[in-house]
Structure formats: C-alpha cells, structure tokens
Amino acid sequence: MPEGRGEFNIKWLAERLWKARSSAAIVPRRKVMIPGHELALNQCHANVTAWVNSYPSHKALRGWLVFDLEVASLFTGEPPHFDLLAHSIVANEAGEMFDITPVYDDGAGTYPFLPHPGELDEFERFVGGCNLARIRLRTREDPMQVACFET
Fold first, then answer.
1. What's the rounded Cα separation, in Å, for the pair 3 and 111?
2. What is the reported pLDDT for 127?
C-alpha cells in the first residue's frame, strides 16, 4: 500500500472504494436484542462485535455506507460528491446480511453498503488507528479530491 497518513494512504483507499462503489447493496435493518447488551445509536462497530460474540455462527462485515450526493449538490451548492461512512453489519450462517445498529428515526432511509475491499486488519487500521469515519470524494474534479473526517 502506498504511503500517506501515517502508513495508511487515504487517497489510495478512496480510489479503491470509488472503483468498487457499483457493487454496494442495500442491507435491511433488523430490530434485535442482545441479552446483557444494549445496542447503541451510532456505535455500529461495537454493536456488531457484541452480536458476533453472542452469536458465533454469524460474522462481522466491515465496510462503508455509500451516500451519492451528486444530485443533492444541485440544491446545497456544494460540489458533486460521494460520502463513504465507515460502517459494520452482520452476516448470518446463510450469508444473509443485515444491519443491527438502531437509528434515530425508524423512517430514515437506507443506504447501500460496500464491503471493505481489503483485509479486516486494514479496515481496522484505517478506522481505528487513524480515527477515520468518513471519506468525501469530489467526483467531478481532476484529479479526484478526497477529504477525510475523523470520528
């Protein structure tokens, strides 16, 4: 992996995510309970870790929610962009994916999930080690502009 932001190159990651974005898919939300653990808003990584500890036949999937804000930019005045938000979901034994993290509003939209296109330890180094929570890709600039937001 090329150098940058410590040993992690965010632009390199952003380019990989940009190329893979078409494989993102909507993942259904499930209201679930974990005995002895309260699921928390905006704590998807901890919620999923607690879930797979309670249900060892399930596995954690780490990746990115994809927010396509190109059309919204027409109304906000911001340059066209995509936001990629670090996120974790669950896959059961049958490979069915679902999102267990509660949301503020049950009517909130769902967004496509893009599995991290690399190894789990790489995701954890970016998100945990670098406190990376969101990547913004300005899509109509050459070269592509990347902005990062910490947790």
1. 31
2. 80
SS (H, E, C) the chain: CCCCCCCCCHHHHHHHHHHHHHHCEECCECCCCECCECCCCCCHHHHHHHHHHHCCCCEEEEEEEEEECCCCHHHHCCCCEEEEEEEEEEECCCCCEEECCCCCCCCCCCCEEEECCCCHHHHHHHHHHCCEEEEEEECCCCCCEEEEEEC
Average pLDDT over residues 25-32: 93
Neighbouring C-alpha atoms within 13 Å toward the C-beta of 49: 7
> What's the one-letter identity of residue 30?
R
**Measured between alpha carbons, how far is 42 from 55 in angstroms, rounded to an integer?**
21
Characterize 77-88 residue by residue with b for buried, 16 or more Cβ atoms within 10 angstroms of its Cβ, and e for exposed: eeebbbbbbbbb
Is residue 104 over pLDDT 90? no
Tell me: the pLDDT tens digits for 39-84?
A: 998 899 999 999 999 999 999 999 999 887 666 666 777 767 778 8
Average pLDDT estimate for 116-140: 76
